[in-house]
Write a structure and sequence with these properties.
The longest helix is centred in the first third of the chain and has 41 residues. This protein is globular. About 0% of the residues have low confidence. The chain has about 425 residues and is α/β, with parallel strands linked by helices. The protein contains 14 helices and 9 strands. α1 crosses α12. The strands form 2 sheets. Strands 1, 2, 3, 4, 5 and 6 form a 6-stranded parallel beta sheet that branches. Strands 7-8-9 form a 3-stranded parallel beta sheet. The chain has one domain: TIM Barrel, CATH 3.20.20.140. α6 links the parallel β4 and β5. Its EC number is 3.4.13.19. It catalyses: an L-aminoacyl-L-amino acid + H2O = 2 an L-alpha-amino acid. It is found in: Membrane.
Length: about 425
C-alpha cells in the first residue's frame, strides 16, 4: 500500500476543512433567509401586497380568444398548454397565493394598432373579461373599486381585483367613454401606451432622432387629467414622454402613479422615470411601481432580483420610501429576472431588501401596499372635494383639428 506524502494529507485536510466551512456558511445563510422570510410573511399577513400591473387578460384573449370555459385559473398553469410552453405566462391563482399577493391591477389593454378603429370595443371586451374571470372564482377573488375595498378583501383572504386601462387611445378621444370605463370599474388610465394619442405624447418621442407630436399634453389632454381627478380615477404615467409626465404633474390635483416603470438613472430606457421627475413625484405625493422587465431593469435581456432591488433603492433615495411600490408587469413580458420568475416570488424580493439594515418592517409594508392605498385614498379625497365644490362633468370635445387625418372611423354628423 502506497503511503500518502505529507503534502497530500495536508491538501486533503484543507479540502475537508473548507468543505465544512462552506457548508456552515451555506447553512447560516439559509437560516438568515428563512428568518427574513418569516418577517416578510408576518408583514404581508397584516398589509396587502398590491401589484400595479398584470397583463394576463390580454394573454387570455391571445391564447383562448377570451373563452373562459377553457381557462383553468385555479390550477398550476405551468402544467397546462398553451401556458406551459409560453414565455409570457407567469400567473395563476395558486402562485398568486404562494406569492402572498392580496391585490392585483389587471390590465384592460388594446394594442396601438386599434387606435381610431376598434380600441374602445376591445377595451370594453377586456373589462368584461376581467369581471367575468372574477365572477368565476368568488371564493378566491373580489372585484374592488376603492381603497377600503382592498383592505376589506385582504381581511377576507380574497384577491382584490382592480381594473387598469393601459393606453389613452382606449377612450377614443371621448370623455364620455372615460366616464363609462370608470362606471364599469376602471380605476386607473395609463395616458398613453407606446403610441401617441391626439392629446398626449408617448415615451417613444423621447428616443434619439424622434420628434414630439405635441410636446406633452394638449389642452384636451389636460381636460382628460382634470376629469380623471373629478371621477376619482388614478392618473398613470407609465409609457408617457417626459414632457407628458411634467404636464400631467402640473395639472393633476391628486397624486399620480407609474404603474410599471423603473429608474432611468440605472437603465436609460425611455420607459423609465428620470430623477427630476422622481423629485416631482415626491412633491405630488405619487408613486413609482417598479417593473421587473429586464430591458427596463438592466437594459438587456438578463437581470436578477438584485438588479430590481437597485431600482427600488434608487427611487427610495431620490423620492423617498413613501413613493415606491411594485408593478412587475407579469404576463406582459417574455423575459423575467433570475429570482423573480413568476408571481410566487415577491416574498423573496422583500426578504432581499431586509438583508439591508436600512429597510425596516414598516418600510416593507409601505412598499408592499400602504403607499398605493395612501395614493388611492388621496385620489378619492380629491374627488370628494371637487364634488363638494360643485364641479360638473367636463362636456368638451376634442377639437377637430387635433384629430384631422388621424381618425379613420368616425361619425361626421352632429357632435356635442
Amino acid at each position: 500500500m502506497r503511503r500518502r506524502k505529507p503534502i497530500e494529507g495536508f491538501i486533503l485536510c484543507g479540502i475537508f476543512f473548507w468543505t465544512i466551512i462552506a457548508h456552515l456558511i451555506s447553512t447560516c445563510l439559509a437560516i438568515q433567509l428563512e428568518e427574513r422570510m418569516e418577517i416578510v410573511r408576518k408583514v404581508l399577513k397584516e398589509v396587502p401586497l398590491i401589484d400595479g400591473h398584470n397583463d394576463l387578460p390580454w394573454n387570455i384573449r391571445k391564447f383562448l380568444k377570451n373563452q373562459l370555459r377553457e381557462f383553468r385559473f385555479g390550477e398550476d398553469l405551468r402544467d397546462i398548454t398553451p401556458w406551459s410552453t409560453s414565455a409570457w405566462s407567469h400567473t395563476d391563482l395558486r402562485r398568486l397565493k404562494e406569492g402572498m399577493v392580496s391585490a392585483q391591477f389587471w390590465s384592460a389593454y388594446a394594442p396601438c394598432s386599434s387606435q381610431h378603429l376598434d380600441a374602445v370595443q376591445l377595451t370594453l371586451e377586456q373589462i368584461d373579461l376581467i369581471r367575468r374571470l372574477v365572477n368565476l372564482y368568488p371564493q378566491h377573488m373580489a372585484l374592488v373599486t376603492t381603497a377600503d375595498g382592498i383592505e376589506e378583501s385582504h381581511r377576507s383572504g380574497k384577491l382584490a381585483s382592480l381594473i387598469g386601462i393601459e393606453g389613452g387611445h382606449s377612450i377614443g378621444t371621448s370623455l364620455g367613454v372615460l366616464r363609462t370605463f370608470y362606471q364599469l370599474g376602471a380605476r386607473y388610465l395609463t395616458l398613453t401606451h407606446t403610441c401617441n394619442t391626439p392629446w398626449a405624447d408617448c415615451c417613444k418621442v423621447d428616443e434619439p432622432g424622434r420628434v414630439p407630436h405635441i410636446g406633452g399634453l394638449s389642452h384636451f389632454g389636460t381636460l382628460v387629467v382634470t376629469e380623471m381627478n373629478r371621477l376619482g380615477m388614478i392618473v398613470d404615467l407609465s409609457h408617457v414622454s417626459v414632457p407628458t409626465m411634467l404636464d400631467a404633474l402640473a395639472t393633476s390635483k391628486a397624486p399620480v402613479i407609474f404603474s410599471h416603470s423603473s429608474a432611468h438613472a440605472i437603465c436609460n430606457s425611455s420607459r423609465n422615470v428620470p430623477d427630476h421627475v422622481l423629485k416631482r413625484i415626491a412633491v405630488n405625493g405619487g408613486l413609482v411601481m417598479v417593473a421587473f422587465y429586464p430591458h427596463f431593469v438592466s437594459c438587456g435581456e438578463k437581470a436578477t432580483l438584485k438588479d430590481v432591488v437597485a431600482h427600488i433603492n434608487h427611487i427610495r433615495d431620490v423620492a423617498g420610501v413613501d413613493h415606491v411600490g411594485i408593478g412587475a408587469g407579469y404576463d406582459g413580458v417574455n423575459l423575467v429576472p433570475q429570482g423573480l420568475e413568476d408571481v410566487s416570488r415577491y416574498p423573496y424580493l422583500f426578504a432581499e431588501l431586509l438583508e439591508s439594515e436600512r429597510w425596516t418592517e414598516e418600510d416593507i409594508a409601505k412598499l408592499a401596499g400602504r403607499n398605493l392605498i395612501r395614493v388611492f385614498r388621496q385620489v378619492e379625497q380629491v374627488r370628494d372635494q371637487l364634488e363638494a365644490q360643485g364641479m360638473l362633468p367636463i362636456d368638451q370635445s376634442i377639437p377637430p383639428e387635433d384629430i384631422l387625418g388621424r381618425s379613420y372611423c368616425r361619425y361626421s354628423g352632429p357632435r356635442t
